[in-house]
Specification:
The protein is of the alpha/beta class and 342 residues long. The chain is 40% helix and 19% strand. The protein has helices at residues 37-41, 48-70, 89-106, 115-121, 166-176, 183-191, 216-226, 236-262, 277-289, 306-318; strands at residues 6-11, 16-23, 27-35, 79-85, 110-114, 134-140, 143-151, 154-160, 266-270, 293-295.
Length: 342
């Protein structure tokens, strides 16, 4: 029987520096995240070069802080998992170079982890985790995908967005409405102050008969609504509410269809949009009415974080699916389809 493995996770794919520490058999011991939102807000979006430089400043202090909080020493580590893609190339290189250098110094393996695999497995950090197999709805940043998950590393793509992902649609629509960065969460909050139905927006591909998504046209419909003579700023909350309802309705319809197609009863929702309160409410109600169950990560694990990377790495070690040690040689993959790691 394998002795418990102490695994450090490093996440630097975009604008959060995340560090997590997991021990197999015990779970998460500690994690820390530093968000760059305030820095990028001045530019209205993520500036890749600034993101990379900030990761350089934050990563070592965050590793030290995480280890202190957990009461463990670097010399006790058995492996280091790090996000190798997808993401911003420069940002990924910061995490990869620190992980590989530290692993080389400690003479332990450094294991590349897919960013979306981290999100996909993050609900299993909860006190009531799902059991394999399940359907996963990944709504993370630039990705909206439905996957059948048979186990660690066993991922089959069921459907995905043909253009804008749901998260992108939230952010771009927020920008159209003049909302500050980060637009998606602000738009969701504003939607809570409005009333859906006051505008009539389309539900793209709702009845397409497959599990594909498209949200680019919805963004265009919002733009058209704002250009009508009777539109005033006072109507923005109602438009935000209708936009949110359109996205949530499509996601719910496709998720139900994926469960029916696979014959499974468990739905896992992961990624930043998974924190949306309206999406959580409707999925729980609609999937529950059909005898299914929905699992969400804790809110602190919805955004990018090191805990999910450490956990994904630990699960790969436990199941014997960890990548072989590279001996210090590494590369990052800014574009990396999740299905490729099955």
């Amino acid at each position: 029987m394998m002795k418990p493995q102490l695994v450090l996770g490093i996440e630097t794919s975009c604008d959060e520096t995340g560090i997590g520490l997991v021990e197999t058999g015990r779970g998460l011991l500690a994690h820390r995240v530093f968000s760059q939102i305030d820095m990028h807000a001045a530019y209205g979006g993520v500036v890749p070069e600034l993101a990379s430089r900030d990761h350089v400043r934050r990563i070592v202090p965050l590793i030290r802080e995480t280890m202190v909080v957990a009461g463990r020493e670097l010399s006790e580590l058995d492996a280091i998992g790090y996000t190798t893609g997808p993401g911003l190339a420069g940002a990924l290189l910061v995490g990869a170079s620190v992980a590989e250098s530290l692993a080389l110094a400690l003479d332990i393996p450094a294991i590349p982890i897919h960013h979306l695999e981290g999100h996909l497995l993050s609900p299993m950090l909860s006190s009531e985790p799902p059991m394999f197999p399940f359907v996963a709805l990944l709504v993370s940043g630039g990705h909206t995908q439905l996957m059948r998950v048979g186990g660690v590393g066993d991922y089959a793509l069921l459907g995905e967005s043909v253009d804008d992902a749901a998260g992108e649609a939230f952010d771009k629509t927020a920008k159209l409405l003049g909302l500050p960065y980060p637009g998606g969460p602000i738009l969701s909050k504003l939607a809570g102050q409005g009333e859906a139905g006051k505008f009539k927006l389309p539900r793209p591909m709702k009845n397409s008969g497959d599990l594909m998504f498209s949200f680019s046209g919805l963004k265009t419909a919002v733009l058209t609504a704002t250009q009508k003579p009777d539109f005033t700023p006072e109507r923005i909350p109602d438009l935000a509410a209708e936009f949110q309802e359109a996205v949530v309705e499509v996601l719910c319809v496709k998720a139900r269809a994926a469960l029916a197609q696979t014959g499974l009863a468990q739905l896992v929702v992961a990624g930043g949009v998974g924190a949306n309160a309206r999406l959580r409410e409707r999925l729980r109600r609609e999937i529950g009415k059909r005898g299914g169950k929905v699992f969400f990560p804790e809110l602190e694990y919805c955004s990018d974080n090191g805990a999910m990377i450490a956990f994904a790495c630990a699960m790969r070690i436990e199941t014997g699916k960890a990548a072989a040690a590279t001996g210090g040689a590494f590369a990052v993959r800014p574009r990396w389809p999740l299905a490729e790691i099955s």
